[in-house]
Amino acid sequence: MNEQRVIETVDGHILVISMVRHAKRNAIDGEMTLALDAALNRLEDEPDLWAAVITGGPDMFCAGTDMAATSGTPTERGGIYGVVGRTRTKPLIAAVEGVAFGGGFEVVMACDMVVAAKNARFGLPEVKRGLIPSSGAIFRASRVLPLNVAKQVMLTGEELSPSDGFRLGLVNQITEPGQALDRALDMARQIIANSPVAVQQSLQAIDALTSANDELGWALTKKARDVINASEDAKEGVAAFFEKRPPQWKGR
């Protein structure tokens, strides 16, 4: 039997989406992509669900793409991971504990609000592997962070602390370790106390304005990814990652 990747639970009008591939730090493979897609399709399609929280549990959020297995084929409704290319009408809150690296951070950026524990770790380490963040960060990082900070995070590959994330506007609330999910649920309950029609129309209007250039963003991401995929640096970076050694860059 295949290992379960995602658990869905319902709390009133709130769908809780829990990634449970903990042995792999919730790294996303093809099966998890399909499971996340199914959960978010359920959020959109069931009229009694008005908001959702996505969590990786008390120890980690998500380490991004499973580099050995890959994340599978983007889904029709959700795109990469079944999440980051999705047009949603209902709010999605990220409850982050531990690592949110690479694609995991890009999942966070695709959410509407972020609750982070003090042990959360945000980062886009792709450049350290000769790669680029290809799941939305190219254009979303500068929406959720000041432009120069977004550049620093992407070009150095170094981590952003939850306190800096809060100060800069990425994180809505900071909690003690182990409390991110509870606080995210509290935020979701504040939302669902309001008219779901008003909430959904407000969210769609905001998203339509902020995502007006997404098509260009995805096109530029593809252009950069095509160059990267043909480069010697990408092959060296991935090999060095699996061989647990420093990469020897060639700049081509």
Care to describe what's here?
The chain is of the alpha/beta class. The protein has a single domain (6-177, 196-209), classed as 2-enoyl-CoA Hydratase, Chain A, domain 1 (Alpha-Beta Complex). It is 41% helix and 14% strand. The protein has nine helices and eight strands. It has helices at 30-45, 103-109, 137-144, 147-156, 162-168, 180-192, 196-210, 214-229, 232-243; strands spanning 6-11, 14-19, 51-55, 92-96, 99-101, 113-117, 121-123, 173-175. The strands form two sheets. It has a six-stranded mixed beta sheet with strand order 1-2-3-4-6-8, with helices on both faces. Strands 5-7 form a two-stranded parallel sheet. The protein is globular, with a radius of gyration of 18 Å. 42% of the residues are buried. The model has no long low-confidence stretch (mean pLDDT 96).
Helix-strand layout with pairing:
Blueprint: E1 6-11, E2 14-19, H1 30-45, E3 51-55, E4 92-96, E5 99-101, H2 103-109, E6 113-117, E7 121-123, H3 137-144, H4 147-156, H5 162-168, E8 173-175, H6 180-192, H7 196-210, H8 214-229, H9 232-243
Parallel strand pairs: 2-3, 3-4, 4-6, 5-7, 6-8
Antiparallel strand pairs: 1-2
Helix pairs in contact: 3-4
